[in-house]
Amino acid sequence: MWKNYILPKLGKVRVINLTFSEIDNLHRSISTEKPVRANRVLEVLRKALNLAIQWGWINENPAIGVSKNREEERERYLSHNELNKLSQALIHCKEKVSANAIRMLLFTGARKGEILSAEWNEFDLISGHWTKPSHHTKQKRTHRIPLSEPALELLRSIKAENLSNKYVFPGKVSDQPLTDIKKTWHFAREFATALLWQDETMA
């Protein structure tokens, strides 16, 4: 973006002389054909100018106030290969409870809060169903869903090692559920990304 959009238009302008209008015009020119890319270019330029402030080159960021284009939210689903790499990454996570919670999210598509607060009395591992209590569901009503075989296998393996806790995914505080999976998710995501890059490098 720096090479293809920013430098051709603004490369000859001294940073201290750069104006809001010049940045706004750049954003508008890109927006005519690539509105989303225009927003990304603006973000890159704004970050660069924040660094210029830190380095003492300028006192204010002229990119502040440039209106971004509206973007439609996109649903992003993992490909089969991405899911495979994520599953491999979860094996290497140190926090096994968090890793299992992420696996359950993948197997069920449930909301994070529903997974982390899940209790064993909600699951029937024989019939293969999960009855979500009304106070945990978005619709505020009891919701019974069938469980896939991978989800059931995961739950059975957890149950075999977790006979004394009412929560499927117990936290570190006694008799409390797990509340955070951010660290494990960040590790798994980075690990899986590295595996994908490795595949591309070897291709």
- Please tally the helical runs, counting DSSP H or I stretches of 4 or more residues: 8
Tally the structural domains.
2
Q: How much helix is in the residues?
A: 40-55%
Per CATH, the superfamily of the largest domain is Intergrase catalytic core
Structural class: mainly alpha
Mean pLDDT figure = 91
* Gyration radius over CA: 24 Å
The biggest beta sheet, please?
3 strands, antiparallel
Question: What this model shows, in words?
Answer:
The mean pLDDT is 91. Strands 1-2-3 form a 3-stranded antiparallel sheet, with no helix packed on it. It has 203 residues and is mainly alpha-helical. The longest helix is centred in the last third of the chain and has 21 residues, at 182-202. It is built from 8 helices and 3 strands. It has 2 domains: 2-54; 80-202, Orthogonal Bundle (hpI Integrase, Chain A), CATH 1.10.443. α4 (80-91) packs across α8 (182-202).
Give a nutshell description of this structure.
With 203 residues, the protein is mainly α. Helices cover 52% and strands 5% of the residues.
Brief descriptors of the model:
three-stranded antiparallel β-sheet, single chain, mainly alpha, hpI Integrase, Chain A, 2 domains, 52% helix
